[in-house]
Specification:
The chain has 270 residues and is α+β, with helices and mostly antiparallel strands. The protein has helices spanning 19-25, 28-34, 49-72, 82-87, 91-96, 126-135, 150-155, 157-168, 175-183, 193-197, 200-204, 245-251, 256-262, and strands at residues 2-4, 79-81, 109-114, 117-122, 187-189, 208-213, 216-221. The chain has a three-stranded antiparallel beta sheet. Strands 1-2 form a two-stranded parallel ribbon. Helix 6 (126-135) packs across helix 9 (175-183). The two termini are 25 Å apart.
Length: 270
């Protein structure tokens, strides 16, 4: 399996790339900027989504290829493109880019101002919209001409959020989610990574693994999936460079000493 910026073939296949470059090349960065009203300059990218997502696609592709090998007895080369990975993240935008029409408008999710911070609220269905109105104590918003139909609601979403924040501004970031949770409205406070790691759900899922290496101990995330009949937790030891080279060579039927002696510079070169 090979993961590269643009794939193994084609006019861009030899171009160098890192995740932030791919974010820009795929339109992902400007799509993200389009939802940040009033910001003319693209934001900095400190989280390398393209790297992680491409690795996840590679994981699925390798598993699929292994299954096919099990069935047919034949293996194959897997070619993963980071550019295509990130284009896959812009599902609605890929469709919209193919047709002429009005802008998609503001998405019906975003920060809701509370008395001491912000809450992310996502309205993805009629039920969610109606539940939000009821949670705020304003069921009349459901049938208001500006909001009753989906198209009108999306076009007037800024006005709706202004009304909603007139209600939420009197509540704290802790109080507002309790009300939304009771009405089935998807929401979450904006948390730091440290706060997210302290979530009881993380402990319940055994989501963190303790790993040891020559430098000491630290915690990393286990894979986010669980198998009913297999252990998917990360191993407890992080091997050093070359730690298992001799064992791997012996398993392949090779003499580690002979391989080391044949490397450039003799044993030292190995």
């Amino acid at each position: 399996c090979a993961i590269s910026g643009y794939g193994q073939t084609g006019p861009s296949s030899q171009l160098p790339a890192y995740a932030p470059v791919i974010h820009a090349a795929a339109g992902y960065a400007l799509t993200h900027l389009a939802y940040q009203e009033g910001r003319p300059r693209p934001d900095y990218c400190g989280i390398f989504v393209a790297d992680i997502a491409s690795g996840a696609y590679a994981f699925g592709a390798i598993a699929t290829a292994l299954h096919q090998r099990h069935v047919t007895g034949e293996g194959q080369f897997v070619d993963v493109s980071m550019l295509e990975t990130m284009l896959g993240f812009t599902l609605s935008e890929v469709q919209a880019a193919q047709f002429r029409g009005p802008p998609m408008g503001r998405p019906m999710f975003g920060p809701l101002a509370c008395a001491d911070g912000y809450l992310m609220v996502a309205v993805a269905s009629e039920k969610t919209f109606q539940s939000l109105c009821e949670a705020a104590g304003h069921p009349e918003w459901i049938t208001a001409p500006r909001f009753a139909a989906y198209v009108d609601r999306r076009g007037n979403w800024g006005a709706f959020m202004t009304l909603a924040e007139a209600w939420s501004a009197s509540l704290t970031v802790a109080q507002c989610p309790a009300i939304f949770d009771a009405h089935g409205v998807p929401c979450s406070p904006y948390r730091t990574v440290a706060q997210a790691l302290a979530d009881p759900q993380i402990a319940h899922r055994d989501a963190l693994a303790e790993v040891h290496d020559a430098g000491g101990s630290f915690r990393i995330m286990n894979p986010p999936f669980r198998f009913s009949q297999a252990d998917t937790r990360t191993g407890a030891h992080s091997p050093a460079l070359g730690e298992h080279s001799a064992a791997v060579l012996r398993a392949a039927g090779l003499d580690p000493a002979a391989v080391a002696g044949s490397a450039p510079g003799g044993a030292g070169g190995a």
